[in-house]
Structures are given as structure tokens and as C-alpha cells.
Amino acid sequence: MSPTLRGTGRQYWVAVRAMIVLTALLGVVYPLVMTGIGQLTMPAQANGSLITSNGATVGSSLIGQSFTDKKGKPLPQWFQSRPSAAGDGYDANASSPSNLGPNNPDLTKAVRERKATIEKVDSVDAASIPPDALTASGSGLDPHISPAYALLQVDAVANARGISASKVEALVKSMIQGRDLGYLGEPTVNVLQLNLALSKMDPEGDKG
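The structure corresponding to this sequence follows.
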């Protein structure tokens, strides 16, 4: 075999060995180490920030859900989430905004319809409806709403459940999450966590 062929063969063998070693390190060892660190230090986050109720997984604190009937109408006994443009709604496999501009007729129509629904369900004036109640988030998966939107829904939820509005309002205020690190973003309310807490409130004898 000529020196040139031997040199070429050696280079290929070096490349193959390097690929095997790097694949093992970066494709197997590194992911396993990082997964182990995640499970040890932040197991909840590493497993998807799942939320359980009565032993069953009901969702993730990172992904929103709809609280509507089969026709898409809001169920008044539940707090409503922010609108979603991800697939059929809150589809993690189709995370995206609507990509519609502010003057797009489809968007303006959707906003008008959402506004009319909120006015009817919550018996409020259109001017008091916050923007996050009318527009979808950039991901379409936002699990949070603003405290203003949550408080806007208090009376309707209280009436539907036969619970005093003051108790429901107090629950909402107790569920408000502050800014990240104390200064990033705005205060929010996680809708799924709020509704789970709401489901544990007993309306019996509460007619205030």
C-alpha cells in the first residue's frame, strides 16, 4: 500500500474515532449528566412543571388550558385563560402567535367577538377589559393572565358557584405572582392553579 493511501486511511480512522468519542460524550454522557443534575436539583422543572390534583396530572404550570364547553363558550364557573392562536388552542406542538397585524380584519373581528363575549359573561364595560383578555400571546401557550383580568372575572365566577365575591377576590389576590427576580415582567396569575384552588372552595352556606 502506498504511503498516500496509508495516510488517507489513517485520517479516516482518526475521524471515525473522533466521531464515536464525541457522540458518546455529547450524545450520551452529557445528556445523562444534565438530566441527573436536573432531577436532583430541580425535579419539578425537569419533569415539565406538572400540576397534580387528587393524584392525577391535570396539566403544566407552563402551558395554558381552555375552560370552555365543546362549542368554545366560556364556562362561567371557571376563570378564563388568555386567548390562544396555537393550533386549536394551547397546542404545544403548534406554538405560535397568529402573526396577524393590528389592522388585519380577521384579528379585529376576533377582538370584537372576544370583547362582546367578556361583556356578556362578566357583565362589564368594554373600557375595563385589559389587553391580555383580547389578544393571544406570542407563544399561544401563556398559562397566565394579568391580575386585572382575573379580578374582572370575580363576580361572574362567584355568582356561578354561589360563593361570595369577597372570598373569590381574596383567592385571586392570594394567587398573584410577582415580577420575576422582583423586577422582570409584570405580576401574573396562573389560571390553572387559580381554578384548582377555586375548586376546593365550598359554596355550602355561603350566600354573602
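The chain has two domains: 3-43, 50-199.
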